[in-house]
Amino acid sequence: MSQPGPNTPRFLFATCHVGAEQALINEWARIHPGWKPAFRRPGFLTFKAPEDWRPSAFPGAIFCPVFALSIGLSYGGVEGESLEELAQKWWALAGDLPFHRVHVWQRETKPPELRPDDAPLPSQTLLAQTARETLQRTCPRLPSAGQAAFDPERPAAFGDLVLNCIVIEENHWWLGYHSVMESHSRYPGGVFPIYLPEHAVSRAWLKMEEALQWSEFPIRAGSRWAELGSAPGGASQALLDRGMYVLGIDPAEMHPAVLQHPRFTHLRRRSTQTPRRVFRNIRWLLSDMNVPPNYTLTAVESIVTHPIVNIRGVILMLKLSKWSQADRLPFWLTRIQSWGYNEYRVRQLYHNRQEICVAALQRPFRRKRQVQRRRF
Ligand SMILES: C[S@@+](CC[C@H](N)C(=O)[O-])C[C@H]1O[C@@H](n2cnc3c(N)ncnc32)[C@H](O)[C@@H]1O
Fold first, then answer.
1. In angstroms, what is the span from residue 229 Cα to ligand 1's centroid?
2. pLDDT > 60? residue 3
3. All structural domains of the chain
4. Which of 202, 243, 296, 372 is buried most, with the most CB atoms less than 10 Å from its CB?
C-alpha cells in the first residue's frame, strides 16, 4: 500500500443525488469544519482540505457522509474532443497510482423523483459505457484481475484500491481514487447492481433490497420481520423474496399478490393501534411510513422499548419534508442509540428519494429479561 506522497491531492470528491448538494455541504461543514466546497456540478462536488489535514494512507479511510453516494480523493478533471484524447489524458493523470479496479460511472443529472424505474444505473448509461470501453481498450497496465477489473457488476474486495472515472459531461471526465471500506463502495458510484423484478408491486422493492445489501444485517431466511407502512407491498416482497416472514402493518390496502403470499400477514391498522403482543416473535423491524421523522421515531420507540418485545435490528426510512431537517440527524441518532442499538449506519440510498435510511443493530443481541410471574 503506497503512503500518501507529495502528489496526494488536497481535495476530496463526492457524488450525491441531484438536490442533495446543499445538504451534503452542510453535513460536511458540521462534521469537518475547515473544508471548503470547490468544483461543483449537480450531483458532483469537490471539497478542499484545510491546511492541517494529513491525507490518510488509505484513501478510503475518509468519513462517510450520509448524503454522499460515493467519496474519494480527487485528482482533478480532464477535457477532450474525442474519447481517445480523454482516455489518454485520464490515464496520464492516474500516473503510477496502484489499483485493483476501475469504476466508471456518470454523475446524476436528474433528481431521484424524476428518474424512471427502468433508468440505467449510473455505470450503465451510454456515456459511462463508452468511457469504460475506451479506458479498457487504452489501459496501459492491467491489474491482476485483468479485464474483469472494469466489470461494474463484479464487486471489488474490501481493501481494494479503485480508480474512479466520473463522467461529468461527454467531454469532461474526473479522476477519483478510493480504497474499499464500505459495502456500497465495492460498486461504481456506490450503487448496487439491483434491478426491479417484474413481480414487484412498487419501487420500494429496490429500496429495501438496497437497504439489506448495504446494511449487511446478519439475517437468514426464516427471520421474522414487521413492516410499519407496508402498503402496497414492494418492500415486504423484497423480504419475502429472501425467505422472510413478514407482518405488514398499514391502514391502506396491500396489493393482492402480497396479501396472498403464505409468509405474509396484514394487520390493517395504524402502528399506534397495534397491540404490542403482535411483536413478541418479531426480531427485525422496517418502518417506511410517509410521516415526519419524529412520528416514525416515536412509533418505533414505543415498540422496541416495550418489555415484551425483542427487536434485534431496525431499518428506518426517514422522510425529509425539507432538506434542512437533516440538521436534526445527530439528535435522531442519539435517540435510536438510547433504545440499545450500538451499531448503526445512515445513508441516503440510491433508491431513496427525499429521505434517508438508518440501519441500527444490537450486537451482541440480548433479549430483555422477562418479568417472571411469581408462583405460589
Ligand atoms: C411510502 S408508502 C409505503 C410503501 C411500502 N413500504 C411498499 O413497499 O410499497 C407509506 C405508507 O405508510 C402508511 N402509513 C402512514 N401512517 C401510518 C401509520 N401510522 N401506521 C401504519 N402505516 C402508516 C401509509 O398508509 C402508506 O401506505
1. 3
2. no
3. 11-190 (3.30.2130), 204-361 (3.40.50.150)
4. 296
